[in-house]
Amino acid sequence: MHYGITIQNLVKSYDNGKVAVSNLSFNVHPGQVYCLLGHNGAGKSTTLKILLGLVAPTSGKAWVDTHEVTNAPALARRAIAYLPESVSLYGDLSARENLEFFTRLAGESHLQKADYYATLWNAGLSRGSEEVRVSSFSKGMRQRLALAIAVSRKSNILVLDEPMSGLDPTTAEEIVQVVSRERNRGKAILMVTHDLNSVEQIADLAGFMRDGKLTAEFSRPELQGRDLNKLYKSLQHSTVAA
Amino acid sequence: MNSLTVLLTHELRRLFRDRKIFLVALTAAALVGTGTWLRAGEYRAASREYHMEQFENDAEITRTGELNRLYDMAPPQVPPQPMAVFHEGVPLVVRDVGTTEATVHEAAFNANPLARMFPPLDFTTVVIWVLGLLTLLMASLTLSGEREGGTFELLVTAGASSRQLVLAKWLAILIGTSAILVLCILTAWLFVIAAGLSMPHSTIAEFLLSSLASLLYLGTLAALGIALSSKSASRARVMASSTGVWMLISIILPSAVAHLLADATRTENFGQKRQQIENILTSEREQHLNDAIAAVYRHDDAQLEHYLKPAGYSAAKFRALPDKEIDQLAGNLSCTDQEFRSFWNHEQRQVLEVIQSVWTEYQGRADVLENQLRAKTTHQTRLILAATAYLPTIAYKETLSDILGLSYLDLMHAEHTQKAYKTATVDYIFEKARTIGGRDPFNVHVNLADRPRFVFEERSAAARWLDAAPFLLVLLCWTAGLLFFAARAAAR
Known about the structure:
The structure holds two protein chains of two kinds.
Chain A (H helix, E strand, L loop, with lengths): L4 E9 L5 E10 L4 E6 L5 H8 L7 E6 L2 E2 L4 H6 L1 E4 L11 H11 L7 H10 L16 H14 L4 E5 L7 H16 L3 E5 L3 H7 L2 E6 L2 E7 H4 L4 H10 L5
Parallel strand pairs in A: 3-8, 3-9, 6-7, 7-8
Antiparallel strand pairs in A: 1-2, 1-4, 4-5, 9-10
Helix pairs in contact in A: 3-4, 3-5, 5-6
Chain B lengths: L2 H15 L1 H46 L27 H7 L14 H5 L5 H18 L1 H7 L2 H7 L4 H33 L6 H30 L4 H30 L5 H12 L2 H14 L3 H8 L6 H6 L2 H10 L4 H26 L3 H11 L2 H9 L6 H11 L3 H6 L1 H24 L22 H31 L1
C-alpha cells in the first residue's frame, strides 16, 4: 500500500522531443516535508501537474496515497490539498467567503463562521481582515489565505508550489510555521521552492532537479551544517550526488 | 450539498454581487421600454389610418355607386401587424431565420448601400446585440479567469470536476442573462399594456416562443464563450477572440446569409414584393393621376380630350362610338384584326420591359415608370389605353396585380411564366376593350361584395416556427457540443 506521495520512474516528453521529466523517482512519507529544488524549467511544475492529474505522464507511475494518478486522476486530485504558486483568489469575495467556498466544495459544509475565522487566524491572517474583500489584500495576505484554504482540507497530502515566492521574511517565517505544524499533524508535504532558508528550516528531505532528472537528494542530517547556497549553485552546474 | 450546487451558488453570488449587471439590466429594460412605447405609438397610428381609409373607401364607393370598380378602387392596404410593436428585437433570431419574408426587406430597395449591409436598428435590436456580446464576454472570462487567477487548480483539487465547473458557469451566466431578458420582456409588455394595445393570443404565443428562442441563442453564446475560455489562460486574449467571433456571427454572417437568401428565395417572397410594388406605385403622383382619370370618366371632356386629341378624336366623338366602331377604331389605326393583336403583343412586351427596367434600375419610382410608359407608347396607343384603363391609375395597379396573379416574381424572372403573363395580359386588355364596347362603363353598378381585393398572403406564425425548428435544434446541439468540448478541454 502506498501512503503519502510515491513517484516511480516518471517520464514526461512532448511531441517536439522535449523531455520535461526524465525517470523521476522519490517518496514523500506521512509526517515528512520534501522540498523539491531546481532552476526554472527543471521539471518541478510538470511533476506537480502530473500529480494533480492536469498532465498525463508519458510513462512511469505516481501515487497519491493509494490512488494512482493515471488510473484515478479525480481521486488522486481530491486527495491533495494544493497551494498554487501565485493565486489571486476571488477578489470580490471576503477572506472568509473564499475559505467557506473552497471548504464547502471539498464537502465540508458543517463548519460555522467561528471555525472559518479560527482557520484564517491560524494561517497568520490578522483579526479584522476576515470579512474584508480579498481584492484589497497584499500578496502576503493572499498567500496566507491560500495556505488557510489548503490546510483546512481534511487531506493527508499537502502540495505547495513556491509558497514563499515574493514574500517578506516575516510572512515567509509564518508560513514555515504553518507548514511545520501540518507536518506534525502527520501530513505528507511536497514543497517546490527556491527559498533555501525554508528548506533549511523544515525540509526532511530535499531533492534537486535538473533537466527533468533528480540529480541529488539530501536528508535532513545531510543538509545540516552545509552551505545550501553553495550546494545549490554547484548542483546547478554539475551532476554531483550526495 | 453537492459540488455542482456549491459551484452554481458561488457563481451566482459573484454575478449578482456585481452592481454592473444591475446597471446593464436597467439600461436594457429602459431601452426596450422606450422602443416598445415608440413602436406602440406607430402601430396605433397605422391601425387608425388603416381603419379610417377602409371606412372612407367603402363610404365613397357606396356614395358614388356608379364608379367603375376598375377605375376608382382605393389602394389596397396591409393591416399593421401587432408583432411589429416588438419589432425584430427580442424575437430577432426566429424572425430572421423562421421566415423568408425577413430576408428581403425594404433596405433591398434603398439606394443607400449601407442600408443593404445592416439590418434596421432599433433599441430592442441593439439590446439583443449587446446582451449577446455581454453573454459571450462574461462566458469567455470564466475558465480563463480561473486559470489566470490561479484558482483553477484549487477548484479541481477541491473536488470540482471539469464537467461540473463548466455546467455551473454556463448555468450561472444563463440565469444572469435570462434575468435581464425577462426584465426586458416584462418591461415591453408593461408598455404594451400602458399603451392600451390588445394583443391576440397568437401574437402572445409567438412572442413567448421568440423569447425562448432568444434565450437559447444566448445560451449558445454562453457555451461558445466557455468553450473559447477553456482553451486559453489569458483573459485579454480570449476577450479579443470572443469579440471577433461575436462580430462574425452577429453581423458579418447574418448579412451575408441575408444577401444569399435574398437571391436564393426571390421567388418565394412575392407577397412582400407585391407589397413593395404597391408602395412604389403609391406616391404623391398617384393622387394626381387618379383624379385625372376619375375626371375623364366623370364626363370631364377637357381631360378626356387631352387623351384623345393626339388620335384626332373628340370626347363627344369617342363617347358616341357604337360598339362595332371599336373594331373600326382598330381599322382607323390601319390594322387588321391579326395585326391589331400583334400590335398589342408588341405593346405589352414593351410595357413589361419598362416595368422590369424600372424595377431593377430605378427601384420603383412611379413617376419614372409613368414617363417611360408615355414615352414608349404612341398617341394611338394612348387612346386605346384610355379605353382599356391602361393609364397608371390605382385601377391599373389592381388590373396589373390581377393579371400577375400570385406569382409576380415568377412572372418577372422566369421565361415561361413571362410568356404566360403576356398572353394573359393581351387577353385581359381585349376583354376589357370588348366590355367597354358592349356596355356603358360609366354606369356599371358597383357591387361591394364583388370588389377585388388584394390578398396579402403572410405565412402563419406556426409555419415560420416550423421553419425555425431545425435552426433551434442546431443551436441546442451546438450548445451541448460546446459545453462538452469545454469540459474536455478544461480537464486537460
